Amino acid sequence: MMGRRKGEVVRSFVLTLLAIFVMFIILFPVYYIFVVSISPGSTLATTEFHIIPRNVSLDSYREVLFGFSGSKLSENFTGTIEGSAHVQDGRLYLLEGTIKGKVKYGPFTGLVFEIPVKNLVFDVSTDVNAQGQLKGEVKGLFILTRMNDDGTVGFAIMRNVELKGGTIEGTHVSGPMEKYVVARNSGTVRFTRVGKFVNSKFFGYLKNSLIIATITVLLTLVFVVPAAYAFSRMKFFGREHVLYFYLMFTQVAGGLGIAGLIALYGMIVKLGLYDKLPVLSFIYAAGSVPFNTWLLKGYIDSISPDFDEAALVDGASYLQIIRHVLLPMALPGIATVTIFAFIGGWTEFILASLLLTESHQPLSVWIYLLLGGIGRGIDWSYFAAAALLFALPVFVAFMLAQNYIRSGLTVGGLKE
């Protein structure tokens, strides 16, 4: 008896060590990328690797999230205007002054600027002639195309500027500005953390990825939920074979490889749908519908039809049954479908690089473009930080919905 127990303990210990070793092999690449992402760039010139990093730096994450590369910014602004001016014949002439403004993203200030101006003309709503110091509020469009390293404005334009609530020697003035203001190597501009993030390359590609993945999830649920209910509950000709044929057809279509991609590319261009984010979501959703329908059908099969019959007796329609009976009870299965659809729209690379131009491409394509020359001239620390940030939303979504996913993948496969 003691020998058997000892043998079980030894076997359990060996299996535990084996599981730890397998997990180490699986997770080591992720850990390696993490170590590279927090290592200073200078340390990556050598081939040495330290399990526990000696010098930890978050510069790569800061550069990815808040690195403003001088790309074009075009946003509405609000601010103030001050300077010496005079009003004559319904026009306000600002001889010399300053415009201070800020750009906001929701409740957050993205950037503030201060630009000296002169010889501006406003069409104002007053017939009174006045001269003195102008103080007022302005709003308009601020376009920044270059910012110098010392914080000065390299090149910027202010358009559609309108004076609101201004006063000059007690005279109220308001009205639009004629022409526009050009600033070259003058004035100052300062980005906040929010402003740097919103105007970083990472955020631009992140926004595209979120749009694609979100529309993919919505379209997938719109088609999958009614289809899964129909295949699970309704009786119609060919019900036992249609879904399996659909699954087989998608696999055959996927097997066409490059020929299928060429045909798809030609069709999208011919229809004038090239470089459209929603089109990519439609393609992703269409490709995921068969498998997700089969998956959700299996879960709905485990829900007793008695609930449907009781709702029908009470006068509920099929849509009401889906909304008030099926959706609450099938939430684990729906959560599983949602995660799979999100991952599909978030991580797909080939179609995104083929059907979208650079300005509309998602994070998956941008990360590939970071590799550039493969092995030379690559900031590996920056690349590793970007790769981990790209994987973070999928990891967080999976962790938040893991209980639903676990039951959604297992319960549907059980039969009473």
Automatic annotation (TrEMBL):
<feature type="transmembrane region" description="Helical">
    <location>
        <begin position="12"/>
        <end position="34"/>
    </location>
</feature>
<protein>
    <submittedName>
        <fullName>Sugar transporter</fullName>
    </submittedName>
</protein>
<keyword id="KW-0812">Transmembrane</keyword>
<dbReference type="InterPro" id="IPR000515">
    <property type="entry name" value="MetI-like"/>
</dbReference>
<feature type="transmembrane region" description="Helical">
    <location>
        <begin position="321"/>
        <end position="343"/>
    </location>
</feature>
<keyword id="KW-0762">Sugar transport</keyword>
<dbReference type="Pfam" id="PF00528">
    <property type="entry name" value="BPD_transp_1"/>
</dbReference>
<feature type="transmembrane region" description="Helical">
    <location>
        <begin position="280"/>
        <end position="300"/>
    </location>
</feature>
<feature type="domain" description="ABC transmembrane type-1">
    <location>
        <begin position="206"/>
        <end position="401"/>
    </location>
</feature>
<feature type="transmembrane region" description="Helical">
    <location>
        <begin position="210"/>
        <end position="231"/>
    </location>
</feature>
<feature type="transmembrane region" description="Helical">
    <location>
        <begin position="383"/>
        <end position="405"/>
    </location>
</feature>
<keyword id="KW-0472">Membrane</keyword>
<comment type="similarity">
    <text>Belongs to the binding-protein-dependent transport system permease family. MalFG subfamily.</text>
</comment>
<keyword id="KW-0813">Transport</keyword>
<dbReference type="GO" id="GO:0005886">
    <property type="term" value="C:plasma membrane"/>
</dbReference>
<keyword id="KW-1003">Cell membrane</keyword>
<keyword id="KW-1133">Transmembrane helix</keyword>
<dbReference type="GO" id="GO:0055085">
    <property type="term" value="P:transmembrane transport"/>
</dbReference>
<dbReference type="InterPro" id="IPR050901">
    <property type="entry name" value="BP-dep_ABC_trans_perm"/>
</dbReference>
<feature type="transmembrane region" description="Helical">
    <location>
        <begin position="243"/>
        <end position="268"/>
    </location>
</feature>
<dbReference type="InterPro" id="IPR035906">
    <property type="entry name" value="MetI-like_sf"/>
</dbReference>
